[in-house]
Amino acid sequence: MEFIDPELLAYCEAHTSSEDPILQKITRETQAKVLMPRMLSGPLQGKILELLVKMHRPKIILEIGTYTGYSAICLAKGLGETGKLITLDINDELEDRVRGFFEESGLSEKIDYRLGNALDLIPQLEGEFDFVFIDADKENYLAYYELVIDRVPTGGVILADNVLWSGKVLPKGRKKLDKDTAAILEFNQFVQDDPRVENSLIPIRDGIMMARKL
Asked: Is residue 1 very low, low, confident or very high in pLDDT (cuts 50, 70, 90)?
């Protein structure tokens, strides 16, 4: 579902800083060779992620859901000299392609790319996460949130992608309530009711929930 007139979206993208060549390459190759290319963040959302990181200046970012590495590179671009991105994904079939993109971006030294089930990997990680981006399987959004919320310091940020779920969060946007939609609805309401954060659901692309730890 398009949430904005395609011409207005094109206008927004035309007035957003242009993609680096490596991001353009990731887009081309993902669309040509990888299943579900809609999962790409794209230039508008990617630049927003980069700018948010530059403004927040986190030392450690945790990304849950790497896919082909577009958003990881955007997040890593925003980091300072000593910043680090830990990005987790379960799909080992994309590993060689993704590691190649990271090397080509010149940011591989800032990126710790780990493969496996994030529910198992997150408890193995040490320390706090200043900035978290959740963009993986929707049924586990709340589980991911619960795993990280107590490890985000005061002022830290959690973002979750696809929280409008192509409009299916509204009854008129769906034919039936499937598991993924139910999970997104539960997650959105949980964050809304969570006294540990202040939050805003932002209608960018497929919706981003932003929560700041109090």
From this structure: low
CB neighbours of residue 121 within 10 Å:
18
What end-to-end distance do the CA atoms of the chain give, in Å? 34
* pLDDT at residue number 37: 85
Q: Are 204 and 44 in contact (CB under 8 A)?
A: yes
Neighbour-count burial of 43, counting CB atoms closer than 10 A to its CB (0-12 exposed, 13-18 middle, 19+ buried)? buried
- Cα-to-chain-centroid distance, residue 24: 18
CB 165: neighbour CB atoms within 10 A? 21
Conformation bin of residue 67: beta by default, left when phi > 0, alpha when psi is -120 to 50: left
Q: Is 22 helix (H, G, I), strand (E, B) or coil?
A: helix
Q: Which of 57-61, 146-150, 169-173, 185-189 has the lowest mean pLDDT?
A: 169-173
Q: Which two tokens stand for residue 78?
A: 């925003």
Question: What distance in Å separates the CA atoms of residue 49 and residue 159, rounded to the nearest whole number?
Answer: 9
- Is the CB of residue 49 less than 8 Å from the CB of residue 77? no
Buried/exposed code over 51-90 (b: 16+ C-beta within 10 A; e: otherwise): ebbeeeebebbbbbbbbbbbbbbbbbbbbeeebebbbbbb
